[in-house]
histidine kinase (Desulfosporosinus meridiei), 779 residues
Amino acid sequence: MGDLKRRCMWLSSAGIILILIYYLPFVSLNVPYIGLNVVENEAGKWQISNVDHLGWANQQGIKAGDTVALINQNKPSEHFTVSQYGIIEQAETLTINKSDELILYKVTNTATQDLIWYHILIPGLVFGILFIFSLFLYIKKRDDKAALLLILFFIAIGFSYLSSGASARIDILGIYINRITLSLIPVLFLEFLRVYFLQHGLILYSRRLLFALYGINGLLLVILSLFQIFGGRLSIIRYSFLAVFSVSILLCFYIIISRYMRYRNTVHKPVFKIIIVGFILSFFPFVVLVGLPSILFGVELIPGALGAVFLVFLPVVFLYLITAKSLFDIDFIISRIRYYSIICLIPTTLFLLIVIYIVREITFLQGIHVGLVAYIGIIVFLYIKEELDFSFRSKLFREKYNFQASLDRFSQTISRVMKPAELEEELIIEVMQVLPVKSISLFAMDLTDNSLVIKKGDPNYPTEENINWLNNNIRSISVGELIDIDSEVLLIVSKAEDKIHLVWIREKQNRTSFNQHEKVWLRTIASYASLVYENLRLIEGLTVKLEEAVSKKDPEHPWVMRLLFNLSEKERRRLALDLHDSALQHQLLWYRKLEIILEDEKIPEDLKKQLNNLAEGMLDVTHQIRETCNELFPPLLRESGIVEALKNLFANAQLRTNYVVNFDSKDFSMNLDYEHVLALYRIVQELLTNAAKHSKATEVNISLSNSNDILEFRYQDNGIGIDLNNLKSSLSHMGLSGIKERVSSLGGNTSLHSSLGKGLEVSICMVVEMMSRVSEQVV
């Protein structure tokens, strides 16, 4: 039932829209537009105050100041358009007093080209565009409330345009449609803004504002109806509608500006900026070129209908906002248009002066028209030229002389260099390839004694005069700065505390000076090189510090050992995956092929026996590879946790060795992160290997416990023990050394207790609460 009701509602709305689409242009085509405004003067006569240049009266030569004697052979005050609106429309005959001469005019429907254009074609075109927008939006976003409000907003604008001709002819239905839709435009706009931003988590204003606007416009419609029925000066209501519309538009603009100021530092800034730009493009031409000049000087710089066409920009902006998945960079576009607007002032002024000089009898209004057309045309031309230039320059010019292509190529090349010498070589090659220079040299200058050393390129030094200038000014030159010295170019590419690298480029082979594009390219490529120089210097310094820390095993920097252990584990994992995915799979493949061969009954028994031995050997190798993979990268270690992982490790170890493992973990309740789990697992692996190969133990006792944030691990066996005094001299070559380093890298302490014949005891203690919490948050 609900779907049927909705369908009926949409069909009814579509029917009404189709009827109005036919009716409103029909009125504009078939009812003459007279275009006269009249006022009653002190003598009681109705004097013409304004003649619309589009109307029939203007074609007949009727002027402002003439008086109207009769309308349809009756007094003007008896004609309802005069008494209610102060306008002469829907008249068949007019008697005009021109210089004390009464002239009878018969009103005919002789529409001019301008009248058809501004009253029918432009409104019809605007309505058609907005109607297509509405259909598109309904198809794409029919379930979006903001989209439905935007559709109503589009239809209101469209009908306000379409009804303007009928309203100007004082057609009652046309007047009501025009007043209703015009009053709904700002209200629907505010309603759309509220719903649209509410969907994005912003509340722009209270709904009471909407209720107030709906109430005011509804009251005006009621007053209009009462004046229409009982008589009254309807021009007052017309101006009231326009006043409410203007205030509502200003209110919309105030809300947008104020909310933009409030949210300009949030992700919503681009949306507000796009809306503001749409508002300016929509209303600025009408207000500045039509409204204000008409009020202040009594002239329109452009026709009002043409200025109103710019209102289409607003629907286009909101259609884009609600349908686009990503927004264009409005800040970039504004900056380019602002730049073009400034630089276009001078050529526009020169062009206008030339036109005035050639066409001497040009009016002020015509000059304004020419200036506007030239100004906007130059801005559009420059913007289109930039877009075309960006799109086609690389295709129209050879890549060698395309500086952008050179920068792309150079950046890719230097991203692979590992030494400063390689960077210097690539820099010289790139400059020589792109610029037709005679020679180029790369110098290193020691700031302690101002000595110059040629590192790459031409072996000839600069002149003594140039070297003296360089010694006096080198400290004030920054990286990337380009200095012209006697048709040669000096470019700083790297600057440290004690050394500077600079490129000295001799003059060009064709003896021309370096142009602006070449200088910009040189500065940019120098900046690229300086960044790589700095990175290589930092990497070199970091490498030296790492080598020192590793060689000293500095306990104050455990992160170094921790990094090395993590890199080692990463390599173990990669090796385990490679073994599993390559060697193991090939081994299994050959084993299956061998099984297929063994199924052949024609094989001699002695050969079959040898092949069976070979198959068993292959199975043993397969098992060893699997064991190696498991040791390199223990499976399910992250998922099972340390306790279960150690139990599995003990079970497998006791199958291959002669010792018994007693494991106690009843006092352990920590949730360790993967790094600590892996470290404990590797420590136990090393201790069990030591017990099997060296200590000859028969019993191993391992306990794992924790007290608050402290993890305690204890290992004890009954093996032959070791002499700890002799251990120190070879500590770096034994597994126990690796255990101590791994524990130290995690901020823990390791204690070793042993003597010959008394087994080995290892105690580990570390604080892990902070690590665990951080790990849990990351997971």
